[in-house]
Amino acid sequence: MSQELITAMTEMNEEEALKLTDELLDAGTSPQDILADCRAAMDIIGERFERGEAFIPELILAGEMLSQISAIIKPRMTGETATKKIGKVVFGTVEGDIHDLAKDIVVFMLDINGFEVTDLGVDVPPAKFVETVKQTGAQIVGLSGFLTLAYDPMKETVAALKAAGLNDVKVMIGGGQIDATVQKYTGADAWGRDAMDAVSLATEWAGG
């Protein structure tokens, strides 16, 4: 673990975080270890937001840092991942919620583990998920939500997919206070605590 990288990210020092990422990679640090540091930093930032010690601008900057670090890490991981995509996933933060930190990490992890991911971003209405699944032929949908107000949009999205006849599409949910009770309420097929849970579920559903 690189405490320096975690500190740079939590202190919103973007330039230092990117510099440290390059240095760690050049020194032989595993991309997975760097990603773990990013997740640790994002957890800290998320906790600060919950306590009212960080605000939307910090979340946006943290998301931008994660995107840039991902862009640096990804080319170093190409040799570790399959070139052939093993499944298609449509992912997004549900309507009414604009949190993207957890979503970005999950999308990144799915991507480097061999999935073709369509990232719809944040505040995504149910109809957009339905439309994109039809366009891409994805068999897996990921719904992210940090706030409790995301539960109903998740439920509505699951219902919209079924109403559209997309009964074979598997739906996973995650983020914030999501647990088995919320999964049952929304009608989703499964829930995950973190990005690795999402990868495991998607791999299982894709027959991997």
Features:
alpha/beta; Methyltransferase, Methionine Synthase (B12-binding Domains), Chain A, domain 1; five-stranded parallel beta sheet; 54% helix; 12% strand; globular
What does this structure look like?
The longest helix is centred in the first third of the chain and has 20 residues, at 31-50. 41% of the residues are buried. This protein folds into two domains: 3-80, Methionine synthase domain (Methyltransferase, Methionine Synthase (B12-binding Domains), Chain A, domain 1); 87-205, Rossmann fold (3-Layer(aba) Sandwich), CATH 3.40.50. Strands 2-1-3-4-5 form a five-stranded parallel sheet, sandwiched between helices. The model has no long low-confidence stretch (mean pLDDT 89). The chain starts with a helix and ends with a helix. The chain has helices spanning 3-10, 14-26, 31-50, 56-73, 101-112, 126-136, 151-163, 180-186, 195-205; strands at residues 87-93, 115-119, 140-144, 170-174, 190-192. It contains nine helices and five strands; from the N terminus they run H-H-H-H-E-H-E-H-E-H-E-H-E-H. The chain is 54% helix and 12% strand.
Q: What is the CATH H-level superfamily of the largest domain?
A: Cobalamin-binding domain
Averaging pLDDT over every residue, what do you get? 89
Number of helices: 9
User: Quick one: how many beta strands?
Assistant: 5
Report the sheet with the most strands, covering strand number, pairing sense and barrel closure: 5 strands, parallel
Helix content: 40-55%
Strand content: 5-15%
CATH class of the largest domain: Alpha Beta
Low-pLDDT segments: none
**Could you tell me how far the N terminus lies from the C terminus, measured between alpha carbons in angstroms?**
30 Å
Radius of gyration: 17 Å
The spatial strand order of the largest sheet comes to 2-1-3-4-5
The helix/strand series, from N terminus to C terminus, equals HHHHEHEHEHEHEH
CATH topology of the largest domain: Rossmann fold
Question: Which second-level CATH architecture of the largest domain applies?
Answer: 3-Layer(aba) Sandwich
